[in-house]
């Protein structure tokens, strides 16, 4: 028992220590990318709506910035996960809000839970997507009044802005590469390796 505890502590210290070993250049590009990505969405908000209620800059984009600019090698930070996770979750959140009565203790957990399942099924798991689904049911009346337009703007529009900035800033130095090509190539190999269902031959049918 003591051996297992000590081993667990060693692993924990290793993980925590490795997490802190981020080069200052990595920190610089992560911070700069997040500033430009979130800044572009905020600028769009100010340009189109001025001082009116915030619509474009939803909270889940801040969480996405941590992944797509600060943890670019993570499978959860890849373009498919960023865009797909937010869009799928937004669809789930809006649907829950439109189909069910506005009872917060029902719609909020249901939107979050179903968004997780939907992202898992579509292989677009992106943790901030849960917040996107939640915002669709607990957000302001302005957000709720958008209906399925919420999926296109602010969600899809904001995701594409974050992605475009990530594709630029995450590839400006040789030390950073985005998207993670090893993950995308693994996904392709995995799809090819899946066994295909063949139609039974004529001999099998006769037998």
TrEMBL record:
Residues 183-207 are annotated as: Disordered. Residues 186-207 have a biased composition (Basic residues). Residues 22-179 form the HPP transmembrane region domain. It comes from the Bacteria. Keywords: Membrane, Transmembrane, Transmembrane helix. The chain crosses the membrane at residues 28-49, 55-72, 84-106, 148-169. This is HPP family protein. It comes from Chitinophaga agrisoli.
């Amino acid at each position: 028992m003591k051996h297992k505890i000590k081993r667990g502590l060693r692993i924990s210290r290793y993980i925590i220590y490795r997490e802190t070993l981020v080069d200052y250049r990595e920190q610089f590009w992560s911070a700069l990318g997040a500033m430009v990505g979130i800044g572009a969405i905020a600028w769009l908000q100010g340009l189109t709506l001025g001082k009116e209620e915030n619509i474009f800059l939803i909270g889940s984009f801040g969480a996405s910035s941590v992944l797509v600019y600060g943890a670019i090698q993570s499978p959860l930070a890849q373009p498919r996960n960023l865009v797909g996770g937010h869009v799928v979750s937004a669809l789930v959140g809006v649907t829950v809000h439109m189909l069910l009565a506005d009872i917060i203790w029902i719609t909020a957990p249901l939107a979050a839970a179903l968004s997780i399942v939907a992202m898992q099924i579509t292989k677009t798991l992106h943790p901030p997507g849960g917040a996107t689904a939640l915002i669709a049911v607990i957000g302001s009346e302005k957000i709720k009044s958008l209906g399925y337009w919420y999926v296109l703007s602010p969600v899809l529009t904001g995701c594409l802005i974050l992605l475009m900035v990530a594709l630029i800033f995450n590839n400006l130095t040789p030390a950073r590469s985005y998207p993670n090509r090893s993950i995308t190539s693994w996904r392709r190999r995995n799809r090819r390796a899946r066994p295909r269902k063949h139609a039974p031959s004529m001999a099998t049918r006769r037998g």
